[in-house]
Amino acid sequence: MAVSAHRGAPLSPEEIYATALRLIDAGGVEGLSMRKLAVELDVNPMSLYHHIDSKTTLLQRVCALVGAQLSLPPDDGAPWPQQLRALGHACRASARRHPSLWLYAQSHPEVTGSDHRLWRALDRILTAAGIGPDDLAHARKALFALLSGFILGETTGALDEQGGAADLDETFESSLDFAIAGLAAFHR
Amino acid sequence: MAVSAHRGAPLSPEEIYATALRLIDAGGVEGLSMRKLAVELDVNPMSLYHHIDSKTTLLQRVCALVGAQLSLPPDDGAPWPQQLRALGHACRASARRHPSLWLYAQSHPEVTGSDHRLWRALDRILTAAGIGPDDLAHARKALFALLSGFILGETTGALDEQGGAADLDETFESSLDFAIAGLAAFHR
DNA sequence: GACGTTACCATACAGCGTATGGCTGTAAGT
DNA sequence: ACTTACAGCCATACGCTGTATGGTAACGTC
Lengths: 188, 188
What we know:
Two copies of one chain form a homodimer.
Chain A: H1 13-27, H2 34-40, H3 55-68, H4 80-97, H5 99-107, H6 117-128, H7 133-156, H8 158-161, H9 168-182
The structure holds a DNA duplex.
């Protein structure tokens, strides 16, 4: 099937995704171009379009790939604050591995919108925390905002530029304490 | 001085900033190009570069312009929860007026980093709330994360796509309650 | 051998930010 | 009054982007 002269095997979507993720981690989403990706894969730029629709959907797939690797806390009956902390740490760890991609995903949520795994896990934890069904959406969105804002600020450096303690690990723990205490507002 | 044939007056940085902001509000930051801006100002693209350094610094100025318009709560001795709410509402209102610009600013914080007005106001409020100096940075960053994450989510639509109550005004009030309750975590 | 399909590639287009250099009319210096 | 300097503007061009279009080569099936 007219495999590339330079390469042994034909391209595959998975290979494209993995290479794109590597380039993104190395040079940021804005540093990724179809031409550079093609060079990295030793292929003509237009060859990529026989395996993916467009650069946008390529980024969607890569986001989904990273999202699927999130190790969310299992429903093992552990205390809810502990589970909430685990969920936070999982997201933050992934964001530190792929900062530019998370930044992109957070600015283009249509890309991640369909990943309801995270919301389901969060809802379960919040329910375990005694949040009633009427407040569930509010609590979930408040926690989403806090978590995603922290990741955003850490990724962009906005949290570093503010004065005060420079240890963001400690600040993250504090923010989790803050969140756990804040959930009291939903107990009426 | 060889003023443009089509325009009566010469360009000014302020006119450029104002027009850029208008175009950004209409078509997003990613929809703004120097060429379109030039068309809007009835001028050759390269003429802009006699008044601004680059597109990047242009965006910085526009961000600063919007930031300066933020009406932060005055230090009038009002109860701190009320001041905290006012600060939150001020930021959210501005973000709703200029969503795309806020999205840009949040992803490029080097642009807004030098605007410490907000942090000073927040620190003042938190001190009034009884937060000790050791916890001030933690509390400030947690609140920054919550606020900026909410604005991010509302701007991109990530908060709409989640299920539950669709009224984001109400959710924002809930999040403020959540924040106020959460500050208890810093009282030791 | 003919044919359809798959993988790949070459060329081209419209758009981007902006470096470079040139034109023109006003202002300042003498 | 004459020269010089400069401010404001513009035309052209370079290298980059994503991708539409259409062509070519190798394969499986008949």
